[in-house]
Amino acid sequence: MDYPRLGLPLPLELVNTTFASAGQPRDALTTPEDLGAWLRANREHFGKLPTVATTSADLDRFRALRETLRRIVGAVAASSRPAATDIALVNRLSAAAPRYAHLAWLQRGPRMTLNETADATTSLLGGVARAAIELLTGSERERISRCQAPGCVLFFLREPRRRHWCSAACGNRARVARHYRRYARPRRTSGAERDKDRAPTD
Fold first, then answer.
1. Distance CA 85, CA 92 (A)
2. Yes or no: is domain 10-144 CATH 3.10.560.10?
C-alpha cells in the first residue's frame, strides 16, 4: 500500500490515505488488504498490534471514519465548527471499544493490564477515534492545516518554518508554480510586430 505517510498523528494519517498523484485523485484504502497494510505501517500508534484478518466490513468502517475525520479536520483548518453528526460518529466509534484495567498481584508485586472488551478490529477503529478526540481537544488542534500546494489535498500540522505546505516537495512545487505565473504572462507586442503578424504570406 502506497500513500504519502508524513509521520503525523494517527487520525491525519488515516485522512491522508486519500491524496492526489499527478493531478489525479488516489485512494490507498480500496481493499481489505490495503487496510491491513495501513494498520501495519502505523503500528507504532497502536502499541501491540494484534494479528487481524481485515474484512470488507472492516474496510467500510475505516473508510467511513476517514471521511468523517476529513470533514472535521477540514472544518478545523478553516476555523469552522464541525458538524454535530460527525462528532457523534467519532464518539460512537470510541465508545464501541471500551477498555478496562485488570489488577494482578504477583510475587514480585502488583501489575496492571488493560483489556479490550471488543473484537480486535473494533478496538483498532476505536483507537483511531480516541486519537482523533485527543488531537482535536489538545494544543495541536491549532496547527491543523490544509496543504496549499497546487493539486495537493493533504492535511498536516503547521510548523513555524513550514506554514503552508505539508512537505518540502509541496513547498518547492508551490514556489515553481508561483514563479511560472509571475514570468509566463503574455508578452506585449509593438505595433510593428502586430502589423508584421497580419501581413499576408505567399
1. 10
2. no
